[in-house]
Design goal:
Blueprint lengths: L23 E12 L2 E7 L8 E2 L2 E3 L6 H13 L4 E12 L4 E11 L11 E7 L11 H11 L3 H13 L2
Parallel strand pairs: 1-6
Antiparallel strand pairs: 1-2, 1-4, 2-3, 2-7, 5-6
């Protein structure tokens, strides 16, 4: 029989009673898809019954980059093929005390208006940008659009300078 020398008994670990609540941070992508001057909105099927409107998009899978996630999410939710053109802006949203999302809104274009919805949404609409305010947009999307409107002009100039001179 083997006996360990100088063996100290292990301390018992205690765990809190009830389910463990951990804070979670997620990464998401959205696509502002243009077709002939209109933007695609999807009406979300949600548990609260509020059915807000949003851009196509969703969460990243482990190891997936933003670009690939955006194309995949658009395809899954609408069956559209799009071309990503640029980044419109960044957003973040606290769902509750334990869930925080941050993400990117891409600008995309398509020539196909034939949307086939996934079971995540109940309806879709192609709307003029000036009509967006008439739709009950998802809170995180409305906040992101407000930030895009107030984007920094000098930042845009420096971005363009970088793009033109980085070769």
């Amino acid at each position: 029989m083997f006996v360990r020398q100088n063996h100290k008994p292990r301390k018992q670990r205690s765990f809190p009673a009830g389910p463990r609540q951990t804070k979670r941070m997620g990464m998401s992508v959205k696509c502002m898809i243009f077709c002939e001057g209109d933007i695609l909105l999807l009406q979300k099927k949600d548990r609260e019954g509020l059915s807000p409107w949003e851009f196509p998009g969703g969460g990243l899978e482990f190891g997936e980059d933003l670009h690939d996630a955006a194309l995949r999410e658009v395809r899954e939710e609408t069956e559209l093929t799009v071309e990503l053109l640029d980044v419109a802006g960044l957003w973040s949203y606290a769902r509750n005390k334990l869930q925080f999302l941050t993400g990117v809104i891409f600008i995309a274009k398509t020539t196909d208006r034939n949307v086939i919805l996934s079971d995540e949404h109940t309806d879709f609409a192609w709307v003029k940008p000036s009509e967006l305010h008439t739709y009950r947009l998802q809170d995180s999307l409305r906040q992101a659009l407000d930030r895009i409107k107030t984007s920094n002009e000098r930042g845009q100039e420096l971005r363009q300078y970088f793009v033109e001179t980085y070769k």
